[in-house]
Design brief:
about 300 residues; alpha/beta; binds zinc ion
């Protein structure tokens, strides 16, 4: 069959497939790091962080949005986009189109990212949050398109951008179309950067592959949650290829901070506060620029047409 030229489509219904109600509720979870048993109530109260060793469990995209944004401020965009399976991909064990439908049911979302706009402590921003639960947070054409729309929204509205990454990399079942998303998102971010609008990138466990090789590492400020695996290729793959042992924790967020690839490790409990602070700084810088622009007009000097705060 001929491959289609459409990479994504709008799903027939505007609603996402809901997760079955009968899903059993865990009353306790075991920390994979220190083996502590954490009861549901404490687990939730502690924002899914182990109280003993501070291991950060994965958050779903909607949980992350709820944690970071002002209550009721998030407006979701492009919720209906679904993959159109551009390669008509089928392996011996699976037909991709069928897998996507199953995953949509299992994860309760249409693809591996949620985008929209919201406020954090009253500061507006465009937002893209990835969800590892949907095919390992893999980046196919829908993820690339939605993130690009989030970037374009930031450009249009002249607001900062936040992308929260959680990904195993490019989506193999969409082959080259997946890899193209690296260039597409990076090109959109370059436009954002030209306008002097800030991009905050938050890396969560894990952020790997094509996502690390594109938008995740292009942030003006790159934050990471403690203990996260952040790399292009995993340490085991590198060791097999190089025939050399890597230093302890070579792909950890902490290692990347020490080596200048990440700016700051931010524990989940202070994440919202840190982001709010960054957004406040940005607004102050921008308003100072506008003030300067007005003064120049009042004094009859050449009027600045460009509102870019870089000029300040
Ligand atoms: Zn623990």
């Amino acid at each position: 069959m001929e491959p289609t030229t459409e990479l994504f489509k709008v799903s027939g219904t505007s609603r996402e497939v809901r997760q079955p109600r009968s899903a059993p509720k865990n009353i306790a979870v075991k920390c994979p790091e220190c083996k502590e048993i954490i009861f549901e109530r404490e687990y939730k109260k502690n924002l899914k962080v182990c109280p003993k060793c501070h291991y950060h469990f994965r958050l779903r995209a909607r949980e992350r949005i709820e944690l970071l944004t002002d209550p009721g401020s998030f407006v979701e965009l492009a919720r209906d986009l679904v993959s159109s399976d551009p390669l008509r991909f089928a392996s011996e064990s699976q037909v991709y189109a069928e897998k996507v439908v199953q995953e949509r049911q299992k994860a309760g979302m249409n693809d591996a990212v949620i985008i929209g706009h919201a406020t954090i402590e009253g500061e507006p921003l465009a937002l893209g949050v990835m969800d590892f639960q949907f095919i390992g947070g893999s980046m196919g054409s829908v993820v690339g398109e939605k993130l690009t729309r989030a970037i374009e929204l930031a450009i249009e509205q002249h607001i900062p951008l936040l992308i929260v990454s959680a990904s195993g990399g490019a989506r193999m079942q969409e082959g080259l179309y997946s890899l193209m998303q690296m260039a597409k998102t990076s090109a959109a971010l370059a436009k954002l950067s030209e306008l002097g609008l800030p991009y905050f990138s938050l890396l969560t466990n894990p952020t790997t592959g094509g996502v690390t090789a594109s938008f995740s590492m292009l942030g003006d400020v790159i934050l990471a949650e403690p203990g996260g695996l952040i790399c292009f290729a995993g340490p085991r793959v590198i060791e097999q290829f190089m025939h050399e042992k890597l230093p302890e924790g070579a792909a950890s967020a902490e290692f990347l901070v020490e080596h200048g690839m990440v700016d700051l490790i931010t524990p989940r409990a202070t994440l919202r506060q840190t982001l709010a602070q960054l957004l406040h700084f940005h607004r102050k810088a921008t308003s100072q620029c506008i003030v300067r622009e007005r003064i120049l007009t009042i004094h009859g000097e050449q009027v600045l047409n460009n509102r870019s705060f870089i000029a300040a």
